[in-house]
Queue: 4 jobs
Job 1
Amino acid sequence: MKDFRAAVAWTGDAIEIIDQTLLPGEERILTLRTPDEVVDAIRRLAVRGAPAIGVAGALGVVLAGDDAAAIERIASARPTAVNLRWAVERVLGAADRRAEALRILEEDVEACRAIGEHGRAELEHARRVLTVCNTGRLATAGRGTALGVVYAKAEAGEPVEVFACETRPLLQGARLTAWELQDAGIPVTVLADGAAPALLARGDIDVVIAGCDRVAANGDIANKIGTYALAIAAHHHGVPFYVAGPRSTLDLATASGAEIEIEQRSADEVATAAGARVWNPAFDVTPAELITALITDVGVLRAPLGPAIANALTS
């Protein structure tokens, strides 16, 4: 994989991010120097993806200094992804906050590499990959989680192509996944979210790989809206459904998916007739029984997922 600019980086006194609201038309770098700029970037999805917003939040604590109110605004900027509050609290508990924030960034880069390698070994014979949302270098400090597996396969010389659901309502798949895969020279086909079951029915997909914003203690996962439907369709058609994410996304404090707070986005993000009401959840929950395995930086976790997750976090 060729060199790329990181989605989130530290300059020494500020955070630099790629403004993902402008892609694919323009690749603009934003410099964040204040906690409120960090909060705004996270909320409007200028920086997005659970690992990436965790890193941004960790670095945001450094910018906030001793301003407890600003730190809480960062931690609560988006509620579903566990990485954000996890990273903020980890930095708060460190004697050297700057060093700890940079350690979180470096760990995410390494986690992405390890996820890619574990996934490549697990899916050696899978060539046609279906995914949802964006889980690559734009969603992490490294090269990605679910797409990290794709990049690892490409680097190993294994044939691989991606079918990317466009992802409603902000088109992260059509705008971001397609952009970064084309940039990496990996074949990509974009499809409407509702077309995914028909594609699976044709037998044209070897594996589905999704990312995750939170994994509950029992193995239920929260991910971008549409993931649950994709898992149901994959199960019906006998296609393996994998979820990829770093160990930091595993949350023993949340017993099941029913306890995960699901972020509701603005109605303005969904085009509608005047006066019509809008229900616009950013995420949905996929139950553990629909998941073939979790691909993490510490290995592939298999059913029963609850004990496997507990062991991964305590070993």
Note: The radius of gyration is 18 Å.
Job 2
Amino acid sequence: MTKIGVTGATGKLGTLVAQRLAAAGADLRLIARKPGKQLPIPDAEVRFAPYGDGPRFELATSGVETLLLVSAMESDLRVAEHTTAIEAAVAAGVRRIVYISFQGAAPEATFTFARDHWYTEQQIRQTELAFTVLRDNNYQIHLPALADPETGVIRGPAGDGRVAAVAHEDIADVATAVLLDDQLLHNEIRDVTGPEALNLDEVAAILSKHTDRDITYKPESIPEAYESRSKYGAPDWMVAGWVTSYQAIATGELATVSSTVEAITGHPPIAFDRYLTTHPEVLDRLRNRT
């Protein structure tokens, strides 16, 4: 039986994938950055290694044949960390990598973090290992966080563009199917999206429905977006990521709806309205105002 390694094992996506693989009886190894967080499967085989520590990551992936590489936390070192992890996995004898990327990944993508994903994809392809790249759209869980909890206003330079946000559960279903079948999406790159592309006025209307308050969208210019976020004191690369995530919506880079979820899993992807019905906790910050 193929041993499957799941990185990001204590994160939301890694947890969902690990649980699905365990239920399918897979030979599983969980890989997390460090101890301390609850593991999704208490009795599972586990190793701890950050992406940027090549020797430890090589040890963590030794004996793994198929590796789910969930992208590292956003940072100015993310590409370097990914490169170290990929090189270590190759040295450990990994034969296939399934990488969680981002829709629109390209060297000149509007969303600056999507550029990181493109460079990581190139690193994987240069290894000549078998691969599958799953380019996820924005996560549906993040859409409520766009609204200010005090004012209920979503502000950003998204214009009237659209975003085909996807639920973690759908990504996990696709990733699990691919991890269990080494011929499924063999050496392919696929977008993974929700069933519809919404503009931010429509996102606001759905949030209003589920929170029983008035959520609105107010477009910003790009200079206004940088100015309004300057108060947080975040590093420049992070602020650029925040602002360009909206700009990528404006340009249409996140508007394409893919058929991947239904084609691979046999069920349609979850719509944002239904997601909020089944995950009401993601609306707590908009409901619990003091």
Note: Residues 3-136+167-192 form a domain with the Rossmann fold fold (CATH 3.40.50.720).
Job 3
Amino acid sequence: MSKDRAMGEVALQMRMLQQSFDAFDEAAAAMLGLNRTDLRCLDLVLAKEPMSAGELTTAAKLSPAATTTAIDRLERAGFVTRSRDAANRRRVLVAATEAARAAEREVYGPIGEAGMLALRRYGEEQVAVIIDFLETARRVQEEQTTRLRGLPVRGRTRDR
């Protein structure tokens, strides 16, 4: 296979991988009774807790009002708690509950284990190349996301 054809196959496989991530997240959100935005917010809180509501707003790239709504829904679902920061009473901290940790283990534990098992078939140098590729792909994706956000909106716009 030529390098150009192989690179095209990588691009196709990345697209299919991204679609599989999207489908998995959709299924995870549905199983947990959440919408995709709430699932993304929960993932951010699980990764860095406690997290202030402002930090969550920035990380999720939501408005403060949308973040508050997501936190409200996650709190009603029993996945987060909200508390005042002892050092700054105006600051609200959001933390994952044990129910959220249990859901994380149930949803993401098996896929993590399957992924680790799949990676065992590669040698140390191959894993290093995979890591480098994934870091590069993430960086490219982030750069292109920034580029898209800077472009004017086309077509119909959503009512706000």
Note: The domain at 34-96 is CATH 1.10.10.10 (Arc Repressor Mutant, subunit A).
Job 4
Amino acid sequence: MRTVVAIVLVCVLAKVLRLRLWSVRLASQWPLVRRLFGLSFPSVSDYIAYGVYQLILVGFIAAFGVTDVVSRAYVMIAVSFLTLVIMAISQGNEVLLGYHQGAGRMGQAHAQAVRSTVIAAAAATSLATLLYFLSDRFIGLFTQQADVLDLSRRLLWLTIFLQPGFAANIILFHSLRAVGDVRIPVLVSQGLTWGLSLPLAWLFCVHYGHGVVGIWYALIIEETMKAILMSLRWTQLNRQQTASRLDPVEGAGEPEGA
């Protein structure tokens, strides 16, 4: 289905933009292709690394039995609804950032990202709270096992505290990508994932024996730290671009990390 949709979208794009795809010569466009690859590769590698990271976490959880694994799976289904809301806001935010940056309105771009972060964090946290109060009904769609319902309820409670940092991290990470700053956010994200969150996950989950609840403790710390550092990076980039407008000779380059 994804392949079919991709083909249809390419056909629609070619028709609307009146492109003749067979006449495109990539050799003549190599500098542009290389630049696009340079912008996209860090984000793609971040998604791949995150998938491997999740597999390792499941390995930690699996040692505690089926209840922990199943509870995590059901709660992740609930979290996916929250992620949809955050990503919808993020995509709209990226479009608006592109308009503001293209028009040279960096102050408005900065304010737009902050506004979107607050809205996404408030919306995701509110929905997480609602899911927690409806946890018995939601998880009850999949199982009536008392131990799974109880553990899932605890995870949904912790998810409320996870969402503000998670939403802020997603919005600001994609905001930085939208203005061409890719490498540094990915390095920060991966550094915290592997250097902080994974050791904490092992410590809370395996060493202290909290199981899947310990994974949620580590995720809360990870996403909160990422949100703080992404906020600092966004503020720093905004100051750099403001200074570039005031001093065009000194600021004649692209954003660091682009």
Note: The chain is about 80% helix and 0% strand.
